[in-house]
Amino acid sequence: MGQRHHAARVDRHGKATIRYAEQARTVAALALGAAAAYAAWLATGRLALGHQLDAAAVAAACVVFAYGVHAHWRIGIERARAQKDAIEKELAQAALQESKQMLEAVIDSVPQRIFWKDVNSRYLGGNRAFAQDAAIEHRAAIAGLTDDDMPWHSTAAEARRRDRELVESGKPLHYEELVPTARGELRWLHTSKAPIRSADGTVIGVLGSYEDVTELVQSRELLNRQANVDSLTMLPNRNRFTERLEQAIRDAQTSGTRVALVFMDIDHFKDVNDSLGHGVGDRLLQEIGARLSASTQPTDTVARYGGDEFVIIVLESGVDDRLSEVLARVSQTFAQPVVVDDSEFHVETSIGIACFPSDGADAETLLRRADLAMNRAKSNGRNGVQRFTAELGQQADQRLALSRRMRVALANGEFRLAYQPQVDVRTNRVTGVEALLRWDDAELGPVSPATFIPIAEENGLIVAIGEWVMQQACFQAQTWQATLPGLRMSVNLSPRQFARGDIVCVVQRALSRAQLSPQLLEVEITESALLNLGSLDVLRALRAMDIDIAIDDFGTGYSSLSYLRRFRAERLKLDMSFVRGIGVHREDEVITRAILSLGRALGFSVVAEGVETDMQLAFLRRHGCSVVQGYRFARPMPAAQAHAFIQRFNQGVLALE
Length: 657
Fold this sequence. Notes:
Strand content: 15-25%
CATH superfamily of the largest domain: EAL domain
Largest sheet: 8 strands, mixed, barrel
Strand order of the largest sheet: 13-14-16-17-18-19-20-21
CATH architecture of the largest domain: Alpha-Beta Barrel
Number of domains: 4
Shape: elongated
Helix content: 40-55%
Number of helices: 21
Number of strands: 21
Radius of gyration: 52 Å
Distance between the termini: 127 Å
CATH class of the largest domain: Alpha Beta
């Protein structure tokens, strides 16, 4: 405001001076004209008599006066011009000062810290925000200081190094650095530096700025931890583990060394979650992760792969067998029980091992093969160690191929049902049949159910296949009712089917479509399936529909007599492994007699499977077995053959003995 007032005042003064000069010029012109006119008038003699003035003198006086006025005019003009130049210079200086003040205000309003240095890393100035960070009250005091004089003096050497790099290269720099503040805190800064050049392009200084990005860096580190660290155990997660395994393989390829991959599963961990809750299970996993980390070297990697699975990367040299050392330490650390909330756990593990380069040349192959070995350890009884072998790889390839072909077989209708009669030895009549799944592959030929059904359980196809079996068996049972009235159809339910919440709906839908009476259907489940959560509710719902229940393979699973007492099944099916031992192993005979006695005591009918010889049949009849099935009477047959067999047998054409 003051600057504009000063400029206006000066401008008014200049304009007044110019007007004075112009007026002087006008007066001079009039004087010259007047002198000339007066001289002419005298010359004509028009002055009155008595005046004795010399015309020439008067004329000369007028001319002198006129030239005097003119000279005064010229001086006024020159003075006006000088004053105008002075005013313009004063105006330019005022504008420059105002521009400087505005530039300083702009720099001070920028949130980034701005500073400038000479080529020797000596500060020449900075904005207000920079002065505050440096704990300097007046900005003018910045000039002449170096980074050694600043709160971040511990990083002064690195700052000078970067300044030299910029001056020598002439290229801008951008980087992040962790520096101390005047309050003693460590903060992350994003710093940018650019060269200041002279008119000829020479670097004459450094212009720098920085901003506090601590929160951004912390957020980035948090995201990185979430992406690479397991939040429960604080071990590397699957993503980070895979990166380290790939790097370990690259290093081993270069150095010619080995990498061992240990894939570990905690046995029966699900029981901990189910019985004591996930909180206890989580703390158990944390302790397991800590013990595994303590059993390895810093060069190794322990990671949580997922759920109750852990993996270890062991780096081996050409001579040392570090893998055996690590496995021994792991075994020792788990020899001591783990205590969580006053509960004591004896940790058992199933371990699979695959090594680079013998078992695979890349991370994906090693992981897959170590996992295969671990699964073999579990199937061998758990709490063991299994190394990958070529045989395991071949079996895995075969299982994968079978899995793919099964999907095609289901879509193309290649599965079929065979029916094995069940004979009541008391009446010598076939009272029921068991529907058994069969598969004849176009390329592989007949595939054993013992081979493909476990694979279907694993890949989930058993659900769709099981629903198809239930529907086809119900249709066939209804078809037979016209000629074989009252014949019971027995259908197996897999544990995976049974665990699904829609199995009751599946059975209802099959009965409704086939228009089959529920009393003519029996479902078989394994005794281990009884232990599944909610199993009793499902069985009660099926029983409420008047569907019979049979406990299959009784005596081979985790038998629960309390479940048998709480739930009323119609039949127990004695497993064929005990029947085959009749006349061979006394122990099998004792178990068989015990199961038959238990069945009679609890009111169950007992069905013996796998009866093949007369000796077995006689033993079973002698000890009260009521129903038998097996090759002694008939193999599983297609529907037409089974129908003919049952008719002939029930008509007495085929004798029981």
